[in-house]
Task: structure prediction
Amino acid sequence: MSSQSPSLSALMNILSHLIPPGFLRNRRGGTVKTPEEIAIMRQSSRIVATVLKELSDYVKPGMTTLDLDKYAEGRIRDMGATPSFKGYHGFPASLCTSINHEVVHGIPSRKKVIRGGDVLKIDTGAYFQGYHGDSCITLAIGEVSPDAAHLIDVAEKALYQGIAKVKAGAYLLDLAGAMQDHVEANGFKIVEEFTGHGVGRNLHEEPSVFNFRTYEIPNVKLRAGMTLAIEPIVNAGSKKTRVLGDRWTAVTVDNALSAQFEHTVLVTETGYEILTDRNLV
Result:
């Protein structure tokens, strides 16, 4: 689940209400997990990866997004976890399901029927033994237009361009610049109103993992043991979004398509480990 990109002053105000005094100073922009915590996060992230892999095979035209949500919640609970998203700040579901011009945080509904040609974003999280995993995929439903297929491909490759920069000693701007450059070289736009985030005991932790070059958010130096939810969101048209009346679903202002991919990633001394890697389930 994406975190809304705040100004620096707004970010610090939010964090001051969520995190004990002195925590940010002591942690210097993000928590470093112990080996025991990382072992649990591998399990929570494996649950997320399993559910997303199963959903990619399960979804068919004619289903509703509520059908997907019911399946996902059942599978998360079957594996001994609870859905990270359900009830989070009042969010009513276990998945975010965003179709076509819906950017993020789409609410599953029996009224939203999935159709051939749709671009479907599925984002979910699992809370297991005190720790969260978080990941998102974008699926082409049936045969999509060449432009839609290209958008999905660019968004996925942008994620891996960012992940490739992860290692102890790197900075968030290294990741952000790699993702932004790939997206813009292909004629698309990075959404700036939502960002990735740290993840662990809390679904959203420090640092904000931005997907574009900015100096309004702290350019944190990465340390081994940090766990990040990296999630570029790519629009075919304007980078701007607006939130619908449900107060959750963000859509493109010009009704252009949007795609998103996300992984929970562990920072290591020499590189990274993708904890939500669907190829490992």
About this structure: Confidence is low (pLDDT under 50) at residues 7-27.
